[in-house]
Amino acid sequence: MEVVVPFLEVAEAIEASGGEDLNLCYQCATCTGSCPWGFVEPLNIRQLIHLAQLGLEGYEGEDLWKCTTCNTCKIRCPRGVGIIDIIRSIRTMIVETGLIPQSLRGALGSTKSEGNPWSGNRSDRNSWAAEMGIEAFDKDKHEYLLFACCMPSYDPRARKQVAAAAKIFKAAGVKVGVLGSEESCCGESIRKIGDEDLFGNLAGGNGALFREHGVEKVLVLSPHCYHTFVNEYPELGTKLQVTHMVELLADLLETGKLKLSKPIEATVTYHDPCYLGRHNEIYDAPRKVIQSLPGVTFIEMIRVREESLCCGGGGGRMWMETKFGERFSDLRIPEALSVGASILATACPYCINMFEDSRLNLNKEDEIQVKDVTELVAEALA
Question: How far apart are CA 337 and CA 111, in angstroms?
Fold first, then answer.
């Protein structure tokens, strides 16, 4: 794939779609040195930005689509350049030409037709709710709208996370409801892939649906949903009070509304998801929850909090094939084992998915389990 566009046209297009910081970059290469791809196969972010500054003349290949939007580069950039916004803006321009990786076309096509990137039927969205005792949202009856992400409706592993959440809601008396099949993907990954028009349609449709049902407070299980509702939907006129599940759990435990009495005899370590940690600085809540679990020994890995190693699933890479030996998650499982952990906990369905694959590929299924923090809390209920 080669892109040749006149310099001014490229610069204007990037700036118009959110990459205003393009010319702030002075090519120090801190981004390239910070990128997690450096641990497996170097990705030269500095060069990508330089090519963009020069009009992308001569750009070819799919390096642009390797970026997981983990935000490591931005927090280390000495000039605070919005590198992810620049990458997203370049992708947006290329998506408009149709020159995107084949593996992403299915995700975008499914989202356009069915409202989710998992090639699942729209009618199946939130079909799990009734069997778990979660009702249709009623603003006069429920404190929160539970926006559980696309994955529990279409991915069996993610269904365990929402089942655990339902058990906790019942135990703590938390009133939540769900919207039906009219709800669509939040659009976070769709925007990072570069389909700005589709993101606008998803955000606009969900925003209208929330207003129609009187939704003010949203509870999410995915950091990706959290990020886009807090930081991106307000741009389009939808402002919500958003709570991630780990924040709710920390509050329920601190106020005594949730009692844990069943010991979990295990050594647990925690992985900070990029979109919960580096993007939104939620570091303490999940650790407080884990340390409240009876019988648990909590231990930190190397590379935690803002230094956490990305799982590799962000920025659209959930739907792209990554060769064995180039998966960040393949590095994280040994890091968890190296500190003696028998459970690797996290708070993101994308991370769960990536780590489960690596646990299988590395033949470590008998040595370590992968759990969402919500699942651990549900296990500790009497």
Answer: 37
Which pair of tokens denotes residue 199? Answer: 């993101």
111 and 79 belong to one structural domain: no
Whether residues 355 and 321 share a domain: the answer is: yes
The parent domain of residue 26 ranges over 2-95
Which positions ≥6 away from 363 have C-beta within 8 Å? none
The candidate with the shortest Cα–Cα distance to 277, out of 242, 251, 310, is 310
57 lies in the same domain as 144:
no
Sequence-ordered list of residues with C-beta below 8 angstroms from that of 320, at least 6 positions apart, any chain: 65, 101, 103, 104
Q: Would you tell me how many other CB atoms lie within 10 Å of the CB of residue 99?
A: 12
DSSP codes of every residue in 71-109? SHHHHH-TT---HHHHHHHHHHHHHTTT---HHHHHHHH
- Helix ranges, the chain (H): 7-16, 30-34, 45-53, 72-76, 83-95, 102-114, 151-154, 156-172, 188-193, 196-212, 223-231, 245-254, 284-291, 328-338, 349-361, 373-379
Pair 114, 236 in one domain: yes
Shared-domain flag, residues 323 and 245: no
Our count of domains for the chain comes to 3
Q: Which of 218, 249, 280 is the last residue of a domain?
A: 249
- pLDDT tens track for 66-80: 999 999 999 999 988
Q: Are residues 307 and 357 in the same domain?
A: yes
Domain edge (last residue) among 61, 95, 129: 95
Given strand 369-372, what is the order of strands in its sheet? 296-298, 266-270, 343-346, 369-372
- Give pLDDT tens digits for 177-216: 999 999 999 999 999 999 999 999 999 999 999 999 999 9
How many helices (H) and strands (E) in the chain? Answer: 16, 11
| Cα separation values, 18 from 13, 82, 170, 251, Å | 9, 9, 43, 36
